[in-house]
Amino acid sequence: MIKLSRRKFIRLLGATGTVSALGTLGVTLGGCSGKPGAGPRVVVVGGGFGGATCAKYLRRFNPSIQVTLVERNASFVTCPFSNTVLGGLQDMDSIQHSYDALRMQHGVKVLQDQVTAIDPAGNRVTLQGGGELEYDRLVVSPGIDFRWDSIEGLDESTSDTIPHAWKAGPQTITLRSQLETMADGGVVIIAPPDNPFRCPPGPYERASLIVNYLKTYKPRSKLLILDAKDKFSKQGLFMQAWEQLYPGMIEWVKGSDGGKIYRVDAANRTLHPEIGDPVTADVINFIPPQQAGAIVHAAGLVNADGWCPVDQRTFASTLQPNIHVIGDASIAGKMPKSGFAANSQAKVCAAAIVSELGGTAMPDPSYVNTCYSLVAPDYGISVAAVYRLQDGKIVKVEGSGGVSPMDVPAEYRRDEARYARGWYQSITQDAFG
Amino acid sequence: MLVSNTTFRGLLVALAIGLLTTLQVQADEISRATLLSISCAGCHGTDGKSPGSIPVIGGKSSDFIATALRQFSSGERAGTVMGRHATGYTDEEIQLIADYFAGR
Ligand SMILES: Cc1cc2nc3c(=O)[nH]c(=O)nc-3n(C[C@H](O)[C@H](O)[C@H](O)COP(=O)(O)OP(=O)(O)OC[C@H]3O[C@@H](n4cnc5c(N)ncnc54)[C@H](O)[C@@H]3O)c2cc1C
Questions:
Q1: CATH number for the A20-143+293-363+420-432 domain, one of 3.10.20.540, 3.50.50.60, 3.40.50.2000, 2.60.40.2890?
Q2: How far is the CA of B77 from the centre of ligand 1 (A)?
Q3: What is the pTM of this model?
Q4: Counting beta carbons within 10 angstroms of the beta carbon of residue A418, is it exposed (0 to 12), middle (13 to 18) or buried (19 or more)?
Q5: In this complex, do B20 and A412 lie within 8 Å of one another by their Cβ atoms?
Q6: How much is the pLDDT for B25?
Q7: Residue A383: its pLDDT value, please?
Q8: Please, what CATH class does the domain formed by A147-290 belong to?
Q9: A73 CB within 6 A, ligand 1
């Protein structure tokens, strides 16, 4: 017996030229693409950085493909730049994006609904609003969900008192209003999780912009970072900037020094570390450990760690046929879980699907990421890398990438802050515009 | 899908399904230049038409773009982040990318 996937088979056909030969015979079969004559159907689950970009680029690469994007919310609130909202620098409207351009300019059918089940064997998904969608290829970009059971005392209901604000939207507003209500002299705690998690520099950018707000409005206050880890992204740059901009206001406690929390007492706003005494604060932002978005678990798309293994060249699931997983939910070699990475992966995935459906070969892909962080409104830093495939894994191109230099003039930081905003405008245009 | 070596019928079904999809997509092959260049859009905007503070590169001359990338890569031209990106591409790739954006 040979196990021959449809994908491989198409490639085989493409390679031998049988496709065009048989194509002229006009052979058709019902049941694959719905209406005869209509192009193949790709359903995309999740209209975030990965899903929106993928839907748009599928249509740009090949307008004969019917693309349906299913997203539970009417519009998308970005996590990127939500820390500026927490710091009072921007409002919620400025980080919200509609799906109008995808609908009107790119011909994507956008459904506001929730996918409640994926049936890999039947090539279809079930919608909460009723009905099913059949697909020829499915792209899943559901982002993350939390492992509530990994911390005692923490569950979805405690996030009203102890917000995570790690999905932007109502949670961002909750945390912001707690910061506004807090009296001068209060203590804020941010508790970041262990790796891997969405946006490695995110908690530290958040600490910076919250303290930038406190420094002006509540200058006797303090911010404590109780970290599950012993080191973090762009650590040298962040710490240098904190000393310079916010002396004495931010304290970082590493995991092995009592930063790692095992229990949360939400009612008393108290955290219990593995080492040392419980710590009480006025505002606590607990960022729980994470896993791939809920929808992929029942569909058999995750490994034992709760993330989705994929062919890193095409983002095709290695566990289920005809399904691709991109963005935070996927295991993408050395790439971090970032909006930029999801955007880059989405384009590679779109190219892979279009090539596969068209029976053409896809050249070797190239991937990219840059995470900008604002430490203050006019102080930006970044970490960047270009990636390629090596032995089936996404790895950094040697000699490329790296973090912003230490000890540069204020001008340089100002330029990076300006480019961080430029990046936000470009990537949201590339995904939603 | 499971296709046994001996079951010709299975093979035909596979063939027909594969065929159907391929019949309906008249795709041009996606070029190396495209795959390399679309990764720049995260910062420079779709087709290099940046809406914000990052420079527009779509429609600039191939010479201008290639020279800029080579100079960022060698360090001859200073920048904040482009040095860290330009070093990720070979000279041949830089030419492909420059030609791609020149045509946008
Ligand atoms: C505070 C913070 C700051 C950040 N800053 C940056 C930054 O500066 N730069 C950067 O690159 N990244 C940043 N990130 C990371 C970035 O937000 C994520 O990596 C990115 O959103 C991942 O994209 P995605 O497509 O995987 O998931 P998402 O963008 O989260 O999109 C998932 C979408 O799927 C929808 N969905 C999920 N399940 C279903 C379902 N069953 N049915 C229908 N819809 C569904 C969700 O509603 C959501 O809209 C930041 C993150 C945080 C928390």
A1: 3.50.50.60
A2: 35
A3: 0.91
A4: middle
A5: no
A6: 58
A7: 98
A8: alpha beta
A9: yes
